[in-house]
Design goal:
By secondary structure, this protein is α/β, with parallel strands linked by helices. The strands form three sheets. Strands 1, 2, 3, 4, 5 and 11 form a six-stranded mixed sheet that branches. Helix content is about 30%, strand content about 30%. A hairpin with a 7-residue loop joins strand 13 and strand 14. The chain starts with a strand and ends in an 11-residue tail after the last helix. Helix 8 packs antiparallel against helix 9. The protein folds into three domains: about 100 residues, 3-Layer(aba) Sandwich (D-Maltodextrin-Binding Protein, domain 2), CATH 3.40.190.10; about 80 residues, Periplasmic binding protein-like II (D-Maltodextrin-Binding Protein, domain 2, 3-Layer(aba) Sandwich); about 120 residues, ACT domain (Alpha-Beta Plaits, 2-Layer Sandwich), CATH 3.30.70.260. The longest helix has 15 residues.
Length: about 325
């Protein structure tokens, strides 16, 4: 298996992939050594996945502080023939790292991924109020680029720092100037493992389903109508986020995580109803929840209730007199 991830090595995405592979090894699911390939963006990794250059991609999708990762949400919505098959949750902690010899008082610029910057902005304002904020494609990329900088060609390298994981600072030979700089201790990021084979893992009872839904744009109450579908079927939403469709102002799609699996009658019933009332419904996968928490389902929404209701209606349907019955 060839796995892509948002690189370089030591990103939180890389850690999530290693965590997933360790679980697969424990389950006896990996017979050969996997190939891990870093990418500069989730979009580039998804393109390689669809092209058959790799077999799966690990990508960040949600952070407990910043919410959905827009780049991943948009890529998943725009990429055909892919399926989410698993998720991982990784605790997030950040350090401020710099080239050897740089002191905290010397720092005039800080580089990192925008999501990481948002999670340490309080600390930056308090400790480095005059520092310029520079974007990077990932936390590890910020550390890698700083470590590789040539001070003779880039004098600013001596006063620049990177926000990254402790592992990235160690891996790229940087000095740690401050630890645990995140504003919200205990923050976590959720990652999804995506494949292109459309194989859906069987339900476990502790599952999640991810969808993208477009609403009719010319009908009042369309959002409420969509939410009512899930309410009627007893399906809980654990995440709902709007994303611009891109074709006009005011046109949005909704990215959803719902509790349950496609095999659950209540989830399948919700999808059938959405397919009737919404112009676009993208099914991105049903997969085991990382926390293993089983969904609490009301008695009226368990599979047996759906089966009993269907059997009752089928029985009534058998009483319908055929159109060509001469006894009419």
């Amino acid at each position: 298996m060839r796995y892509g991830f948002l690189g370089p090595e030591t990103t939180f995405t890389h850690q999530a992939l290693l965590q997933a592979l360790a679980e697969m090894t424990d389950d006896g699911a990996t017979a050969t050594e996997p190939v891990l390939q870093p990418f500069t963006s989730v979009a580039a990794a998804a393109a390689a996945l669809v092209a058959g250059e790799i077999d799966a991609v690990m990508a960040p999708i949600e952070n407990s502080v910043e919410g959905g990762v827009s780049g991943t949400l948009d890529t998943l919505a725009a990429t055909k023939r892919i399926t989410i098959v698993a998720e991982q949750v990784v605790p997030v902690t950040f350090v401020l790292a710099a080239r050897p010899g740089t002191a905290l008082a010397d720092v005039t610029a800080v580089a990192s991924h925008p999501h990481a910057q948002a999670q340490v902005q309080g600390w930056i304002r308090a400790s480095l109020p005059g520092a310029a904020i520079e974007p990077a494609s990932s936390t590890a990329a910020a550390a890698q680029e700083l470590a590789a900088a040539d001070p003779s060609a880039d004098p600013g390298a001596a006063t620049r720092a990177a926000i990254c994981s402790p592992l990235a600072a160690q891996h790229f030979g940087l000095d740690v100037l401050a630890t645990a700089i995140e504003d919200n201790p205990g923050a976590q990021t959720r990652f999804v493992l995506v494949t292109r084979n459309h194989r859906i893992p069987p339900r476990t009872g502790a599952d999640k389903t991810t969808l993208v839904v477009h609403l009719p744009h010319n009908r009042a109450g369309a959002l409420l109508e969509m939410l009512d579908v899930f309410s009627i079927h007893g399906v809980n939403l654990s995440r709902i986020e709007s994303r611009p469709i891109g074709d006009a102002l005011g046109r949005y799609s909704f990215s959803l995580d719902v509790e349950g699996h496609l095999e659950d009658r209540r989830v399948a019933g919700s999808l059938r109803a959405l397919h009737r009332i919404c112009p676009v419904v993208l099914y991105l996968g049903s997969y085991p929840r990382a926390d293993g928490v089983r969904t609490d389902v009301a008695e009226t929404n368990v599979d047996g209730s759906y089966d009993a209701a269907r059997a009752w209606v089928d029985g009534l349907s058998e009483l319908i007199t055929p159109q060509d019955d001469p006894g009419i």
